[in-house]
Description:
By secondary structure, the chain is an all-alpha fold. Helix content is 81%, strand content 0%. It has helices at residues 4-18, 22-34, 38-56, 65-78, 81-94, 99-111, 115-128, 132-154, 156-170. Helix 2 (22-34) packs parallel to helix 4 (65-78), helix 4 packs antiparallel against helix 5 and helix 5 runs antiparallel to helix 6. The protein is elongated, with a radius of gyration of 18 Å.
Amino acid sequence: xxxVASSMATFRRxxxxxxxxxxxxxxxxxxxxxxxxxxxxxxxxETAVEMxxxxxxxxxxxxxxPLINKALALFQWKQDFAGAEALCxxxxxxxxxxxxxxxxxxxxxxxxxxxxxxxxxFERAAELSxxxxxxxxxxxxxxxxxxxxxxxxxxxxxxxxxxGMGQGMAQR
Length: 172
């Protein structure tokens, strides 16, 4: 693998050569997000979203990946669950069959404790899966989420203690 600096330089050159392509900004944003350069990443995702909107008009049909990436960036950067969830919801309105949007929404809902809603999205993710690995992953999350719901129903005190432990670990 090449160095991050080399990759960053390559993307800067790509912007000069292909500055009219939203994918360049989206993937550059992903690289920036990996480097935890959240503000810059969000800016690149916003540029990609704007370019997509202009390219397809308000009729829809746009590539929703920059919306999902922006959602992930907002979540990682500011723990902005509401903003991230709204962006995923927007992506799903534009492209209800987007497996990445469905899986991301499931994870966001689960992390917010919206377990029943998360389960529906995990099950939908399994339906949209294209490979055996994706199916196994989605079904594993769905089953774990089902188990979590069962524990909450049968053992509410235990579930409450486990949730408290999980929040304590997340704050470390």
